[in-house]
Specification:
By secondary structure, the protein is α/β, with parallel strands linked by helices. The chain is built from three helices and three strands.
Length: 103
């Protein structure tokens, strides 16, 4: 948490220099920091200026990807949907979702 401002500056610099894809995972920042990586990515993305309406030139929002790491023995449609909902709650949106360690 003490590095959030520095991380925000690094994210902004990456976007300014053309980075347009950021990938994280729902288990990155586990323990007391559960979902912290997703939450920070969502916060940083939300702070970006809104793109101008087409056809005016403006940078598009970067793609946000995450991975879900369900326990294989507990994997169900419902648990995957719930993981998606939690990630969207932390990130604001998920453009690409992937299974970490698919069965």
């Amino acid at each position: 948490p003490g590095m959030d401002d520095e991380l925000q500056r690094a994210f902004n610099l990456c976007v300014e220099r053309g980075a347009n894809f950021f990938d994280t995972g729902d288990t990155y920042g586990t323990g007391d920091l559960e979902g912290r990586s997703e939450a920070l990515l969502g916060k940083f993305d939300a702070a970006l200026p809104e793109p101008l309406p087409w056809p005016l030139p403006s940078p598009r929002r970067p793609l946000l990807a995450t991975k879900w790491a369900p326990k294989v023995w507990m994997l169900s449609r419902e648990s995957l949907v719930e993981s998606c909902r939690r990630s969207i709650g932390r990130m604001g949106r998920v453009d690409i979702g992937q299974l970490h360690w698919p069965p």
